[in-house]
Amino acid sequence: MVLQWYREKGRHHLPWRQTTDPYRIYLSEVMLQQTPVERVIPYYQRFLDRFPTLEALGEGEEEEVLALWSGLGYYSRARNLHRTARISGGELPRSYRELLQLPGIGRYTASAISSFAYGEARAVVDTNIKRVLKRYWATSDGREIWELAERLLDRENPREHNLALMDLGALICRPKDPLCSLCPLRSRCLGRGDPLAYSSPSGRSYSKVELHLGISLREGSIALVPSQGRLYRGMLLLPSVPGGERAVATIYHTYSRYRVRVLLYPLSSPPADALWVPLSRLGEVPVPSLVRKAVKAYLEGGD
DNA sequence: GATCCGTGGTC
DNA sequence: TGACCAAGGAT
Predict the structure, then answer these.
(1) Of these four, A143, A154, A190, A262, which has the most CB atoms within 10 Å of its CB?
(2) Which nucleotide's C1' atom has the smallest distance to the CA of A16?
(3) Which chain B nucleotides are covered by protein, judged by CB under 7 A?
(4) Does strand B come within 7 Å of the CB of A4?
């Protein structure tokens, strides 16, 4: 039985498992999207210290929300989180349908909030559960997974049921080296003979990009410019420069499907719209990791 | 339905 | 180093 396995071996220590507060469940689910659990934990704690309630979040500024998110990536998550806080006026809606209407909340997150916070009988399907179910039924067709999940759902105990399948996927039914011998479902699992055949392909191809960024320092402050395009919207970046021969430092950074080689140059006259941010306050400002890495490399490499 | 959106860790 | 990964959502 999965439930018994979960009660003995599940990840009960995770901070967001200690609560049924919809806001906290919601925050954790958004942070966990495409992001490793261990990485989320400190961000989750810090975020709640500053914004303990959805109401407090709605009263905060997007700039500060993005600053708290800095380093987590996928920053539209933070902007949507903040928008949702403002839209919903201090309290999340109770119904799945209304949750689905909110920015940044899709089928997975709406189901997760409904089941984890409200105890509603909603099946949850994330990549972990999808992999578990695909192997269990030995199907490579991902389209019917939601229906299968609904059929399998324990309607008496949806919260634990969903968490159990999720933990099973993360701890036992792992993408690469599944621990079938420890799996509580092994006797009825149709995919146990060849579990890897039913894993998702997931492959992402990378292309190389080169970036030329300028660094201006004056009296301990650095010049940053607001992001223009869709990427890093609402955040501050190093200004782009034409690029010359004398890069002071070079760093590598991966983002989305790009492997970026970043060349850093001293910049004597930054753009007029630049903001001067004291280096000592770089941690309080909405900048992506790329900027922190670049500044660090520049200061260390450029004497 | 395919593509875009970040990042630090790991092998 | 380079490839690949990890609790999705929006377009």
Answers:
(1) A262
(2) C7
(3) 1, 4-9
(4) no
* Cβ–Cβ under 8 Å, residues A15 and A45: yes
A36 contact to strand C (CB, 7 A limit): yes
pLDDT one-digit tens code per residue, A187-199: 999 999 898 888 7
Active site annotation includes A160: no
d(CA A79, CA A21): 21
pTM value is 0.96
What sign results for the dihedral spanned by CA atoms A31, A210, A250, A266?
negative
Neighbours of A119 (CB within 10 A): 13
- Whether the CB-CB separation of A236 and A277 falls below 8 Å is answered with yes
Q: Distance in angstroms, CA of A220 to C1' of B9?
A: 32
Q: Is there contact between A262 and strand C, defined as CB under 7 Å from any strand atom?
A: no
Q: Chain C bases under 7 Å from protein CB?
A: 1-10
Question: Chain centroid to CA A217: how far?
Answer: 32
Rounded distance, CA A101 to CA A204, Å? 29
Question: CB count, 10 Å around CB of A190?
Answer: 12
